[in-house]
Design goal:
alpha/beta; two-stranded antiparallel sheet; about 250 residues; Rossmann fold; hydrolase
């Protein structure tokens, strides 16, 4: 089962992915792991340079799309990452998380009970057929550019598609508070003005089609989202990671 979690930079994708992974893995009947789109960046030297002379890490051309699609197809078929695959993204810090851990604990227990109930019914069917009942593998794919029109073939691989959102001011504040990012060949720090010149314009260009009148800080276009099988986070949950987790 592949779950795609996408949205703008600093919208909580990685935080949510890690929370879901940990909660899902609390059940012995489930095996969850994360695959980050950022692990498929091209080499530092191959990252495109825009008209302002800045390397553009937030565009489609910065990602090795054939490798990403091949890896996702492998995961979907085999339920595991390709041999030798190692994530560098897990080395990046997402910063302090403001969340109600009591809610996480309650949801964890609820999940265990639900999975156990479902598994018992599943096992009865397997036993009748004389078959074993293996754990369900769930791959959570975290990426800033998973659902764009140009990503149709990759988008089709996901069984569940969750879209997070945040406003410009929050994205800018959170992104600029980060120390930087581990890359294939070193470490990247956003230069001054990077959110305004690169990050936010790219987000608007690639995701305005999901919103009414193309306003990425407005309401989602439910018709488009439904057609593409994308479940959009309610606008009222922006900045509320506890609420986002419960929604997911």
């Amino acid at each position: 089962l592949l779950i795609g979690i996408s949205g703008p930079s600093s919208s909580g994708k990685t935080t949510l992915s890690r929370l879901l992974r940990d909660v899902l893995n609390s059940s012995p009947l489930l095996h969850a792991f994360i695959l980050h789109e950022d692990d498929f960046y091209k080499t530092d030297a191959e990252i495109p340079v825009n008209t302002d002379g800045l390397q553009d890490w937030d565009c489609l051309e910065s990602i090795d799309l054939p490798l990403l699609e091949k890896t996702l197809a492998h995961v979907k078929e085999h339920g595991s990452l390709p041999a030798g695959f190692e994530s560098k993204e897990d080395k990046n810090d997402v910063g302090k998380v403001d969340i109600d851990w009591g809610v996480i604990e309650r949801q964890t227990e609820n999940l265990k009970q639900k999975v156990q109930t479902l598994q018992q019914g599943h096992e009865r069917g397997k036993e009748a057929a004389g078959e074993a009942s293996p754990a369900l593998t769930i791959a959570i794919i975290d990426g800033f550019l998973l659902f764009a029109p140009s990503m149709a073939s990759i988008r089709s691989l996901f069984s569940v598609k969750l879209f997070l959102r945040t406003d410009y001011a929050t994205a800018k504040r959170r992104r600029e508070a980060r120390s930087g990012y581990v890359t294939l060949e070193g470490f990247w720090e956003d230069p001054p003005g990077y959110v305004d010149k690169v990050v936010w314009p790219n987000y608007v260009k690639d995701h305005s089609f999901l919103f009414r009148n193309g306003d990425v800080e407005g309401e989602l276009n439910e018709g488009v989202c439904t057609e593409l099988g994308i479940v959009g986070m309610p606008k009222g949950l922006e900045g509320n990671m506890t609420g986002v987790f419960e929604w997911a």
